[in-house]
């Protein structure tokens, strides 16, 4: 079978987040010390001084205490609170939760608890169930059959609870405003019978209560209780307050005494129930006995076929109070795992580890039992899918995704706790949930065992729309009153009522201002399709004061010539009274009770006039003001008459008409007639705003008649008329012009001839063809009146040439032809005279430069030595003489309106004129002793510089090519004739011979120092 969803009620261990912490009290009274009793009595008397007549309870804090109990402490009949708070019989505590409210932090008028906070309540109850033999049983809200029970409420400002079970049937409230688990654990502790740790009768041994720092009205939270003080004082108790609990301006109210000063900032911040909290609760309600774990069938082992797993539950033994939880993936089971019910059978056909435990009410969990099943031919199991998100509170819509790590697996899903099958909906993409849902998912794959079931408990709240705005606000207003409604919600719709009932989508939809003529209550709210709650209702109350009817002005303004007569009257409908008075002005001022009283029509002369009129009647509000603007023109023309363009009268196909306004800030109005003269223009006719096109008349060949007139203020011009004949050219058109030469790159000025391949079919009608040209890229047009045009154009610089052709007689034009012409200087040539190329120049050479680009200030500029020429370099004007050496010339051509040429580069080598060698210095005769060094020197002139060779007795000495010959450690055998020969391309020269005489001497001894 498929695992069932668990009912989350029990947990094994809970870490709570607490901002306040409490103590345990058991049933035995204990006499207070005299000092403690006096202190307690003084504090109780202070509390009683503020109790009002008839008041029964004191609620300022997290404990609700009776006035009678505090009064008994104040008058000395009791020393402190009773420790014997009534326990819940058998540890069974019924409870209910106020119905779910909107989970956005708001609280409805009944204190409803938001759905997202129910889990925090359950976790707090589970914490106490895990500590002692107490069991919380949820009852339906409003179940009157339960005599004593706890009711959880969402409170706007308080966390409090009564202490213990009361001795008469009653609904005991636990109010919560801070929805933290630790806060709820604390308040439930009170309901189970616990009071505060700082209220122990021995507390003055461990802490000092600083009464002057306690907020007025909160003192009862610090009264001492009669307790038997089990164990030592517990600073870590969940029932202990923080050091500054109920402190005025955050001042300390509970100060630990030595040696516990270090507890000051840790007490009241417990993260879990302390050991003393658990021990004290167990002492009150009994300790938890471990639940017995049931057996399972079959036992662990290896099987050839699927097994039917079940728990061995003995009928009748705690069957109604024991629950069983298990996992199939080897993970440790918790109360959030799958729940097993008596009689369930799980079919297992793949290698599986089953872990389970039992949990009985008022018992601790059993041990966890592990059962392992392996199969000889195990069928693989699909991994359980993952639902994201799988819990929590969300604002609608929430997008939910499902994934499986098993390739090829299909995910099926279901709602409401139903286990998905392959017949359930197939997941194919994200789900958008708009309501709270319990979603289950399971993965399937052929040849695989279906996966476990993944569950997601999602609380989805619908967003409440922002309320609309109504204008004006509630108040008194004269009739009629226009009411506007507005919403900031995109695509939101405002529905409203006028009878005081709450609006819904069946009522009026606001589309335009609502007019009110009597007292009305307007209610409005916003609706939007989708997962949204309608907005809150906005209510405005309007008191509408009746007014008399507003006057009617006749004529209602406008333009008039010479003068205009104006009359005023009351409307036929409305509140018209016989003694009503109409008062008016003609200068735009608003009427008052002192303005002109209307008795008869009045005349307005030349000028601009604003007439305003209002009705007055004693005891009623004046009517609204009626206004009308009049312009009365001088009938004699005073403005310049407009002009029409083009001036020619006959055109093929169409003509674009322009009216030139010759008066600044004047408006030109015009009329048009088809083969007939139109009426003279007025300001009610067409306002000229730009050129307009006239096509063929209704009867082709007829004439258009146009009249125009200028208006400015009260002035106007004379009327001007223009006639245009627009005829059908029979489909004939001019071919676009052609250019010779066509566009391109040129190195000298050119003349472009312009022509067309079109020949007029009837020169008598169409006339000859003219061309109008531009060279700056702008579109050419036929001037008005046309000129002679041009069939050629000279270009001496870059140009974008555009040309349009025109039939002279009918003003018909061709399409525009465009061509781009670029001009660049030709690269100059650099050569020598006569031309010998780079080399073969002896002594000198003449360099000449030239360019095929001429005229227009053309120059060649050059530089030597490899330098790039610029516009400031030397201008070439005549041949250049160069001498011996290597010469590099660079040159460019420049011309006005032309792009500079590329750079020309040339190199020339000029060699010097050869000169034969001539010996200038001959080597000298020398006589030396053997074993000394000898040096001969020669010097010669010549072009190019000569090379040298040395000879000994007529034999050339190899490798001796310098002007100096060195002989080291000479011997007698080296004596003889030495001379040098100097050679270049021109000739050679031989020096005089030098005789070397070497005297024989004894060789140096080893001790001699050789030079």
Task: Please name the defining characteristics of this protein.
1011 residues, Immunoglobulin-like, disordered N terminus, 6% helix, mainly beta, seven-stranded mixed β-sheet, 6 helices, single chain, 78 strands, flat
Task: Describe the sheet with the most strands.
Answer: 7 strands, mixed
Mean pLDDT, to the nearest integer, reads: 83
Q: Which stretches are poorly predicted, pLDDT < 50 over at least 5 residues?
A: 1-31, 101-110, 1007-1011
> Strand order across the biggest sheet?
1-2-6-7-5-3-4
Overall geometry: flat
Describe the fold and architecture.
- With 1011 residues, this protein is mostly beta strands.
- Among the domains are: 289-375, Immunoglobulin-like; 386-461, Sandwich (Immunoglobulin-like), CATH 2.60.40.10; 464-545, Immunoglobulin-like, CATH 2.60.40; 552-633, Immunoglobulins (Immunoglobulin-like, Sandwich), CATH 2.60.40; 643-727, Immunoglobulin-like (Sandwich), CATH 2.60.40; 738-815; 829-911, Immunoglobulin-like, CATH 2.60.40; 915-999, Immunoglobulins (Immunoglobulin-like, Sandwich).
- Helices cover 6% and strands 37% of the residues.
- The chain contains 6 helices and 78 strands.
- It has a 7-stranded mixed β-sheet with strand order 1-2-6-7-5-3-4.
- A hairpin with a 2-residue loop joins strand 51 (703-712) and strand 52 (715-716).
- Helix 1 (34-48) packs across helix 2 and helix 3 (118-129) packs across helix 4 (181-191).
- The termini are far apart.
């Amino acid at each position: 079978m498929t695992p069932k969803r668990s009912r989350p009620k029990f947990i094994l261990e809970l870490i709570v987040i607490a901002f306040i912490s409490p103590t345990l009290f058991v049933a035995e009274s204990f006499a207070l010390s005299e000092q403690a009793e006096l202190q307690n009595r003084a504090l109780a008397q202070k509390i009683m001084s503020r109790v009002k007549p008839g008041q029964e309870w004191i609620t300022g804090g997290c404990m609700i205490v009776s006035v009678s109990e505090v009064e008994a402490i104040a008058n000395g009949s009791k020393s402190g609170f009773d420790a014997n708070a009534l326990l819940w019989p058998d540890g069974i505590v019924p409870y209910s939760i106020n119905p779910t409210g909107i989970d956005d932090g708001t609280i409805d008028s009944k204190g409803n608890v938001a759905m997202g906070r129910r889990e925090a309540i359950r976790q707090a109850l589970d914490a106490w169930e895990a500590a002692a033999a107490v069991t919380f049983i949820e009852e339906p809200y409003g179940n009157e059959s339960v005599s004593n029970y706890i009711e959880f409420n969402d409170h706007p400002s308080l966390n409090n609870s009564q202490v213990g079970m009361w001795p008469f049937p009653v609904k005991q409230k636990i109010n919560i405003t801070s929805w933290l688990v630790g806060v709820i654990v604390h308040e439930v502790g009170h309901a189970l019978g616990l009071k505060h740790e700082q209220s122990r009768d021995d507390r003055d041994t461990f802490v000092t209560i600083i009464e002057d720092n306690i907020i007025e009205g909160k003192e009862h939270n610090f009264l001492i209780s009669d307790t038997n003080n089990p164990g030592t004082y517990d600073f870590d108790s969940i029932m202990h307050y923080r050091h500054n609990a109920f402190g005025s301006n955050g001042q300390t109210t509970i100060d630990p005494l030595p040696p516990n000063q270090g507890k000051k900032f840790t007490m009241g911040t417990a993260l879990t129930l302390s050991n003393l909290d658990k021990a004290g609760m167990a002492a009150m309600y009994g300790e938890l006995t471990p639940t017995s774990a049931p057996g399972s069938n079959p036992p662990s082992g290896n099987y050839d076929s699927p097994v039917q797993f079940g728990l061995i539950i003995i009928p009748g033994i705690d069957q109604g109070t024991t629950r069983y939880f298990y996992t199939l993936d080897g993970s440790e089971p918790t109360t959030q795992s799958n729940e097993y019910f008596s009689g369930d059978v799980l079919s297992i056909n793949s290698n599986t580890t089953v872990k389970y435990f039992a949990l009985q009410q008022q018992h601790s969990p059993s041990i966890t039992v592990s059962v392992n099943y392996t199969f000889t031919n195990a069928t693989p199991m699909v991994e359980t899918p993952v639902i994201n998100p799988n819990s929590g509170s969300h604002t609608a819509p929430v997008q939910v995704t499902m994934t499986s790590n098993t390739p090829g697996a299909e995910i099926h899903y279901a709602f409401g706790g139903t286990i998905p099958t392959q017949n359930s909906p197939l997941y194919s993409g994200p789900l958008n949930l708009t309501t709270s849902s319990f979603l289950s998912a399971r993965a399937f794959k052929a040849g695989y065992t279906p996966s476990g079931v993944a569950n997601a408990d999602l609380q989805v709240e619908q967003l409440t729309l922002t309320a609309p705005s109504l204008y004006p606000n509630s108040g008194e207003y004269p009739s009629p009153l226009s009411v506007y409604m507005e919403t900031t919600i995109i695509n939101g719709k405002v529905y409203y009522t006028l009878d005081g009932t709450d609006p819904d989508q069946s009522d009026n939809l606001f589309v335009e201002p609502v007019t009110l003529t009597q007292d009305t209550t307007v209610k409005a709210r916003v609706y939007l399709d989708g997962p949204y709650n309608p907005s809150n209702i906005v209510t405005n109350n309007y008191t509408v004061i009746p007014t008399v009817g507003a006057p009617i002005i006749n004529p209602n303004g406008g333009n008039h010539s010479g003068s205009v007569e104006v009359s005023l009257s009351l409307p036929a409908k409305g509140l018209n009274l016989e003694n009503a008075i109409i008062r008016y002005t003609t200068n735009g001022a608003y009427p008052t009770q002192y303005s002109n009283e209307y008795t008869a029509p009045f005349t307005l002369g030349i000028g601009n006039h604003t007439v305003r009129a209002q009705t007055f009647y004693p005891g009623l509000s004046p009517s609204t003001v009626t206004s009308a603007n009049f312009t009365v023109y001088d009938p004699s023309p005073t403005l310049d008459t407009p002009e029409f363009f083009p001036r020619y009268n006959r055109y093929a196909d169409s003509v674009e008409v322009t009216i030139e306004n010759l008066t600044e800030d004047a408006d030109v109005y015009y009329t048009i007639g088809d083969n007939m003269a139109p009426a003279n223009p007025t300001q009610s006719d067409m306002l000229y705003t730009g050129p307009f096109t006239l096509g063929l008349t209704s009867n082709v060949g007829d004439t258009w008649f146009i009249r125009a007139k200028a208006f400015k203020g009260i002035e106007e011009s004379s009327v001007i008329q223009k006639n245009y004949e627009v005829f059908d050219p029979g489909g004939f058109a001019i071919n676009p012009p052609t250019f010779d030469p066509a566009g391109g790159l040129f190195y000298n000025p050119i003349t472009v001839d312009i022509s067309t391949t079109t020949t007029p079919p009837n020169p008598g009608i169409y006339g000859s063809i003219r061309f109008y040209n531009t060279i700056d890229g702008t579109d050419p047009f036929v001037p008005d009146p046309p000129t002679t045009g041009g069939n050629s154009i000279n270009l001496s610089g870059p140009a974008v040439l555009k040309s349009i052709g025109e039939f002279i007689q009918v003003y018909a034009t061709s399409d525009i032809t465009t061509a781009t012409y670029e001009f660049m200087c030709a690269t100059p040539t650099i050569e020598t005279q006569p031309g010998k190329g780079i080399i073969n120049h002896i002594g000198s050479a003449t360099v000449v430069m030239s360019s095929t680009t001429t005229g227009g200030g053309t120059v060649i500029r050059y530089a030597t030595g490899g330098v790039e020429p610029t516009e400031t370099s030397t201008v070439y004007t005549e041949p250049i003489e160069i001498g011996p050496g290597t010469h590099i010339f660079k040159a460019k051509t420049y011309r006005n309106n032309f792009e500079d040429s590329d750079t020309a580069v040339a190199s020339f080598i000029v060699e010097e004129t050869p000169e034969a060698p001539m010996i200038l210095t001959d080597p000298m005769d020398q006589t030396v002793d053997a074993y000394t060094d000898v040096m001969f020197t020669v010097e010669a002139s010549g072009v190019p510089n000569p090379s040298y060779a040395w000879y000994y007795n007529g034999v050339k000495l190899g490798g001796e090519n310098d002007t100096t010959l060195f002989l080291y450690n000479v011997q007698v055998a080296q004596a003889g004739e030495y001379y040098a020969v100097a050679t270049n391309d021109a000739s050679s020269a031989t020096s005089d011979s030098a005789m070397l005489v070497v005297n024989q001497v004894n060789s140096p001894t080893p001790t001699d120092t050789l030079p």
